[in-house]
């Protein structure tokens, strides 16, 4: 099973970036561990992922946006299960949608082609460039904004009807500000559809699993690449250029949405198709939350 958890680390860091960083030793050698600026580090990591063709940075093709224009569309927030169509307005024309931490030319262009007024917000300039590239190619109108999902202050209060937030809050150390900001920028009656990682994915000793194929429970949740590992392990991660990850508790993921004022009205789970842990438990969660009227 060696390699199984190597792929989990890839999944954790690079699935979202397609193993590229493991091929780039020394990329982050100049980063001082004690003073890591997570946002700047992850911006560079995701920019490199685009450059190296990560799966999560590959834009949809013109046939996908053409179908969306005809009303035939679906979007993924997790690896394999599309979000239920009934979670979206029947007619997206004129609906103001924020695609949060969603760069890469996937969700944003599909929803724009379906008629929504789309803003794609992301920390990676290259990810946002992928959205602009699709928009130009397929004559779509969308707005791109670079920023931190935990600080949406450039966006006005009550300016969106729908937020689509694919799995990405594993890349911020504190998820609660994200929920509060989502609540602020949504209109009353608006909805937030979010994918996130079940924290069980972070409890194992990933290095031991990679090297020995042993699933050994080691880490407490909340997990942090910066705080849960030894100095040597942290340096390995940084030297490999993996995006930094954080395993948030369910209290912060689900309780955080409720504490922000949302009402949860939808829930499903998803899996990696071929990951050993996913044989035992689904490691992705998607929720639908409403801002009450
Ligand atoms: C796994 S990708 C998700 C987007 C992709 N379109 C998808 O289909 O899954 C994670 C995204 O989160 C973004 N990201 C990471 N940290 C962020 C932050 N602090 N604020 C905003 N976006 C961030 C990355 O740049 C990347 O585009």
Structure commentary:
The protein is an alpha/beta fold. The protein has a domain of 179 residues: Vaccinia Virus protein VP39 (Rossmann fold, 3-Layer(aba) Sandwich). 31% of the residues lie in helices and 18% in strands. The site of S-adenosylmethionine has 22 residues, from helix 2.
SSE blueprint and pairings:
Elements: H1 4-15, H2 38-51, H3 62-69, E1 96-100, H4 107-113, E2 117-122, H5 125-137, E3 142-146, E4 160-165, H6 176-185, E5 186-197, H7 206-212, E6 223-224, H8 231-240, E7 246-247, H9 250-260, E8 263-270, E9 284-290
Parallel strand pairs: 1-2, 1-4, 2-3, 4-5
Antiparallel strand pairs: 5-9, 6-7, 8-9
Helix pairs in contact: 1-7, 2-5, 3-4, 6-9
Order of helices and strands: HHHEHEHEEHEHEHEHEE
Unreliable spans: 1-31
Globally, the shape reads globular
Q: Distance between termini?
A: 51 Å
Average pLDDT across residues?
88
- Find the CATH topology of one domain: Rossmann fold
- How many H/I helical runs? 9
CATH architecture of one domain: 3-Layer(aba) Sandwich
Tell me the number of strands: 9
**Class computed from helices, strands and strand pairing:** alpha/beta
Radius of gyration: 18 Å
Lateral arrangement of strands in the main beta sheet: 3-2-1-4-5-9-8
Question: What small molecules are bound in this structure?
Answer: S-adenosylmethionine
**Helix percent band:** 25-40%
Strand content: 15-25%
CATH homologous superfamily descriptor of one domain = Vaccinia Virus protein VP39
